Amino acid sequence: MVHLGLFHYEVNVLRLGLTGGIACGKSTVSAMLLARGAKLVDADQVAREVVLPGEPALAAIVSEFGQAVLNEDGTMNRAQVGKLVFNNPEQLSKLNSILHPAIRKRMWERIEAYEAEDPKQLIVADIPLLFETGQDAMYDAVMVVYVPQSVQLERLKQRNQLTEEQASQRIALQLDIEEKKRRATYVIDNRGTLAETEQQIERFWREQGLP
Question: Is the pTM of this model over 0.70?
Answer without folding.
Answer: yes
